[in-house]
Prior knowledge:
The protein is built from 23 helices and 24 strands. The chain is an alpha+beta fold and about 775 residues long. A five-stranded antiparallel beta sheet has the order 1-2-5-4-13. Strands 3-14-15-12-11 form a five-stranded antiparallel beta sheet. A five-stranded mixed beta sheet has the order 6-7-8-9-10, with helices on one face. It has five domains: about 125-285, 2-Layer Sandwich (Sulfite Reductase Hemoprotein, domain 1), CATH 3.30.413.10; about 305-390, Sulfite Reductase Hemoprotein, domain 2; about 395-550, 2-Layer Sandwich (Sulfite Reductase Hemoprotein, domain 1); about 575-695, Four Helix Bundle (Hemerythrin (Met), subunit A); about 705-775, Translation Initiation Factor IF3, CATH 3.30.110.40.
Amino acid sequence: MFKLPKDLINMIDKYRDALNEYLEGKISPNRFKGIRVPFGFYSQRASAQLMGRVRIPAGGVISSQLKALANLAGRFNLRIHITDRQDIQLHGISYEDSIKILEYLKDYDLSTIGGGGNTVRNISACYLSGLCKNEIFDIRRYAVGITEYLLKDPISAGKLPRKFKIAFSGCSTDCAYALVNDVGLIATERESAEGFKVYCGGGMGAFSAIGQVLEDFITADRVPYVIKAVMLTYNKHGDRLNRHRNRLRFLIQDIGFARFRELYERELNMLQESEYAALREVERKELMPLEQMNLNERSLTDKNFGDFLKNCVSPQKHPGYYLIELHIPQGDITDRSLEEIASLEEIVQDIEFRTTQNQNLLLCNIPGQKIPLLFNRLKEILPDPGFFNPAAALKLVVCKGAATCNLGICNSPALARAISDELKQNHLKMENLKVFNLKISGCPNNCGQHVLGIIGLSGLTRKVSLRPVPLYKILLGGRTGENITRFSQEVGVVPARAIPSLLREYFYNVQDKVNNHPTVYEFLQKEGIAIMRELINKHSYIPDYDQNSDYYKDWGKTEDFSLAGIGPGECGAGVLDLIEADLTEADKNLALAKEPGARTNYLKDSLIYTARALQVVKGLEPKSDSEVIESFINEFVNKGIVDKRWLKIVEIYGKILNGLSDNEKTDILSSAEEFYLTVKTLYKQMDPNFRFPSEIKQEENKIQSTHLLDLKGIACPYNYVKAKLFLEPLDKGSIITIYLDDGEPIRNVPSSLKNDGHEILEMVKEENIYRLVVKKV
């Protein structure tokens, strides 16, 4: 089970202080956004409420944690949603209650921290890990251990260029979609050693990409080094300024995979020399084998028990034990249902719970003889049991869309309900249709994974006779699996209102044909795409508003469709938001200070906001106005980032506090405006790694002053002695590049020089030799 690192618990005080300042009006909503989003709190569409995304590493959650989440939801009137990355979201949180949520969750090793912003997001894993007979080995401990390892690094908690996603799969089937994550690891074996194949640069969004092989095989003990090295490479070279191209996959596209690998290997070598990483052992339950039994012979009068066995129950690799996958429609579950599901522990002592990529709940370690009892209990718990719903066979996944998301175009959850209702009312052969899946996103951003769907739907809008209409792109053919992952391809666009009837007709037409082909993908190529295109032509017609106004309304809505409430997304909120919020406030206060009879407080506030704006990139968090001025002088003036003449802000600040005459106010106002423009220009000159022109120049000068020492062919310990003697007469701060052989030289010389107090700046393998860059300290 995941253990919440103390570093994250200690961060709660920072959130409490920022929240209090926001509620008291001391900081702006934009500045607070840059703080709350990395803590996992997003604003909900067109409301004054928040959504909190709770991290569930590898989808593993225990009974007490489920009860805690249910208790929170009941106490604060929240809605619970399971995501397709195995998180659990809480919707409807007030700003005031958000700190109470954080405080309560920590006692159960749960937290929203890292659920949003430029952070390492929830690390997902195959939800059958440790249970599947086809897995190479159980990979849960790696997903949990890497979560604990990375969250101890401050970089992972909001300082990255953008979000960073990691997934582990237990075999080449890739149930965790490792190939479409920033880093994806697939379990494998080589010479009886457990290890992983590592993919890098995948991701889903408006511009999706499939990951490339970074490491063909690494032993399990190297996992933390490899993942952290990728994270550090991304942190150092990713573009922080271009919000539309600042995911890892865009960095790889821009510089090429070969160059990225070179930068990664440099970080990996330095990391392995400087840090020891070992993952905590995660406790695993040992199950006593049980006698196998034929569940179909169990006598139950309920005619739905057979459907339950077919749709929800499957054997796990432990003899006599079974899995029950509870289909949770749209991933939404009530607090009462969640609490009662958690209480199934009273019936099955060894029960485990998992959240799945299909937004479902998995019940694990169920003895066969307990299944009829659980079936009857689950019917009482779930008001609309998913296993009675034919649409459950389609493994339907749907994002929250316009229901709560600021970026959502269409109300995708309402469409999913309409599709389920349509399929319920028609007698389709769902057993034949289980080869399909259906994934729905309310906009192009792929939160519903539509590019991976055998059938994918992606929301958009167009105007018809000057009225906006909700529509969906229809995509076909998405698949996952090592060496076979492919994105679905668009085949047409249909109005939202026509989607349920289109799918009903499609499934009716194909239900007797699809299983005549070796796979659903071959069926699509030979027949399925053509059938869908024909139906799209039939259903794509949009009548005039006067003929049928329903086409101009989204599912779940009575009013005409509009984009009201849509706004900027908050997924990437962080450092830039904090800077821009301060500069906006500085500019606003300047404007107010120029008005006749304006209070001098506006001048003071403008000065403070300006001086504070860029301090976040230096990791500074001044607590008072005087600290803001002091730290600006120390970090920006004294270090040459801004001109020495801005030492005068100390004098300006003092004069404002002591009161200004009219003549002084005019002069101070002019200086404050010039100071604001200076800092704003500096912000625009900042490079993607938050470096300013003077700092970039200093680094260039360092490189030019490098000394060279070629120690190729020199054995240990003579190579170290020669390096030590070469460094002795050089000035402190001198940079020396040393060429060393592989093997003992590169293993021993860097650590020996580091023990002498020198700084290892780079360590890069170039063919059969290493280039070591050392700074004399």
